[in-house]
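Progress note, project year one: complex with S-adenosylmethionine.
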Amino acid sequence: RRKTVLELGAGIGRFTAEIAKSAEKVIAVDFMESFLNKNREDNGHLGNIEFVAADVTKLEQPEESLDLIFSNWLLMYLDDDEVQSLFRKQLGWLKPGGYLFLRESCHQQSGDKMRRMNPTQYRDPEKYEAFYSSVTQPCDSDNIYGYDLVVSKSVETYVKLKNNQNQVLWLVQKVKKDKASNQGYKSFQEFLDSKQYSLRSILLYERIFGYTFVSTGGIETTKEFVQMLNLKPGQKVLDVGGGIGGGAIYMSKNFGVKVTSVDLSSNMTQIGRQRAKEAGVTSDQVQFEVADATKREYPDESFDVVYSRDTILHIADKLALFKMFYSFLRPGGKLLISDYCCSPEEHSEQFKAYVKQRGYILLSPEAYGKTLEQAGFVNVRAEDRSKQFADILKTEIAKTESSKEKFIADFDENGYNSIVNGWKEKLGRVEMGDQRWGLFYAEKPC
Ligand code: SAM
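Model obtained:
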């Protein structure tokens, strides 16, 4: 429910009426007067729509006046300069916290009739992402305004009915950004994609964790933990920080559940989609979304299970996140999380430096369990699995060392050394007691 909504390229009103039903005021803009007249004829009676005949590239709106700007199949008719200029102006028009929604046709389908008939720009999705993420606006001495991604994904109906992945939607939010946060990157997403989860790092991690996995124990811990969920065919699972798809692919193939895998890293999601294809898993069985789990909302009671492996270490406000999980779960729904944790005591300088450099926010297993209870969960089990963690690290190191030559042939010596040394340091931190690993199971009351 958004108060003031600007709909750009409103046309004959395929969306205008829907938007008007849940908004206080809609400003519907289109430069085709005949379209706008039809829209007025059909929807004018709703009483909260202002119809504006204007070219969106010349449009002006008061600063910070809008809660949502909606456009469907609009930017593909504008050239690159016009799109960038519009993103810039829209950032000014939105209130802080306001949203921008867009849906575009991306990539060109070969033999596409439309392409031959008009100058439509079928851009790669990355191009839209580069445009909106480069736009900023001054705020105060320490902060700027910019867009942060909430979710981007292929439009489900097109995937289901036409097997077409190229209809892409984005929801981004105008946020205040601390100039000093994200270690110099424009957003947390860019920090993840450029630093810890560059394409090369992900493939190196996958080599040690095992095919399709970027978390402790790979398929072994996945089998062990998933059996605690008693999954039934047709159930809906949300995999938070789903990475390159290991958990989602395993659950959908072995239990017939439908999984939504959300991950903020577009690199992870790109590899995940590829791995799902290799496994013969359709987008109906596992749907990948590039989304920020702290912002992406789903309807209440829409999942049977929320599952998350070694991800929430990246998220500061765990209570707010657990409250969201609670609302997404149906009564009796189950939650299963594994995560990096820390000891409750004072930590060594070395450990503090590691946590800071990674940008992790860690709790002790006990505090983690308490936070789940605070969010309303019952039957909470919070287990310190550090012993299992150390054993797994030793196995992963031994396995990697025994296939050193192949590893170096597939990557290079630097890659091999960074992984093996990184694992040995991790084992050292666990043996010192600073670093812990927790397993958490909880239920939403029936
Ligand atoms: N769960 C996967 C697995 O078991 O293989 C991947 C684990 S990986 C260690 C952590 C994942 O969390 C990364 O893929 C990262 O991009 C994702 N992540 C971090 N912050 C996130 C956020 N705010 N929203 C969604 N995903 C996030």
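The mean pLDDT is 94.
The radius of gyration is 24 Å.
No further modelling is planned for this target in the current period.
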